């Protein structure tokens, strides 16, 4: 999952970035509230972590402007402000959760995962799509209770597809999610990852979960409501019928 950290204190930012990367998140960081709003406008983040005390504008204003612009990215406030009024104000202007510094590393990770699940409509840490089971906490997956041996990038792709099940994801979205705009490889690498992921799913008995939508991208579906077509180039492909 891709996270935006909005934190003006360098030491705190380094600490939080390390925690999130260790938990498997892709992280972008900015110390500016103004820049954060623009980044939220132009990039697809799964979660934003926000300090209220910024150098240019208050964190409350970042939340207000984001919500006014119809940006629905979940926002977790992680702040040194301990008074209850700060928490109430942050939640009232559109924050999804509030944690106080210093914080417990495990609790931060657990809250981030909980917010991500709720934002995608899931109530617990395990996602089940047909024979496929994904554990968001352990970052693992299995098919028919048989573990899948996935690389980090393969798991990240499968997790993103599962959390956005039913939504077509473009190759740009995958590149953005995996690399965050830094040292991105050519777009065809996504086809390679998807091919390897499909092969591993198939070997465990899960065929046809990942579909190709021609000209758009990939989607994870438990069942096929679309008209399936055959292609000599790509199997598991469907054409969306108006």
From TrEMBL:
Listed GO biological process terms: regulation of DNA-templated transcription
GO cellular component annotations of the record: cytosol; protein-DNA complex
Cross-referenced Pfam families: Response_reg, Trans_reg_C
InterPro entries: CheY-like_superfamily, OmpR/PhoB-type_DNA-bd, Sig_transdc_resp-reg_receiver, WalR-like, WH-like_DNA-bd_sf
Highest taxon, organism lineage: Bacteria
DNA-binding span(s): 124-222
Gene3D superfamilies (alphabetical): 3.40.50.2300, Winged helix-like DNA-binding domain superfamily/Winged helix DNA-binding domain (1.10.10.10)
Keywords: DNA-binding, Phosphoprotein, Transcription, Transcription regulation, Two-component regulatory system
SUPFAM superfamilies hit by this protein: CheY-like
One MF annotation (Gene Ontology) recorded for this entry: phosphorelay response regulator activity
Protein name, per record: DNA-binding response regulator
Provenance organism: Kozakia baliensis
């Amino acid at each position: 999952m891709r996270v935006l950290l909005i934190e003006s204190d360098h030491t705190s930012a380094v600490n939080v970035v390390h925690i999130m990367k260790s938990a498997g998140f892709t992280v972008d960081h900015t110390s500016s509230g103004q820049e954060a709003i623009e980044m939220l406008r132009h990039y697809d983040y799964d979660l934003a972590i926000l300090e209220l005390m910024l150098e240019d504008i208050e964190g409350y204003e970042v939340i207000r402007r984001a919500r006014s612009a119809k940006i629905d990215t979940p926002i977790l406030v992680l702040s040194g402000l301990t008074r209850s009024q700060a928490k109430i104000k942050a939640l009232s202007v559109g924050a999804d959760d509030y944690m106080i510094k210093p914080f417990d590393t495990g609790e931060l990770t657990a809250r981030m995962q909980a917010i991500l699940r709720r934002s995608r409509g899931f109530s617990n840490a395990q996602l089940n799509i047909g024979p496929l089971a994904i554990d968001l906490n352990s970052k693992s997956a299995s098919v028919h209770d048989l573990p899948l041996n996935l690389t980090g990038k393969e798991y990240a792709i499968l997790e993103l597809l599962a959390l956005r099940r039913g939504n077509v994801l473009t190759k740009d979205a995958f590149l953005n999610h995996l690399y965050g705009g830094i040292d991105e490889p050519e777009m065809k690498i996504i086809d390679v990852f998807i091919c390897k992921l499909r092969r591993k799913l198939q070997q465990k008995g899960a065929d046809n979960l990942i579909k190709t939508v021609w000209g758009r991208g990939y989607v994870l579906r438990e069942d096929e409501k679309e008209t399936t077509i055959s292609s000599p180039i790509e199997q598991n492909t469907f054409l969306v019928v108006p």
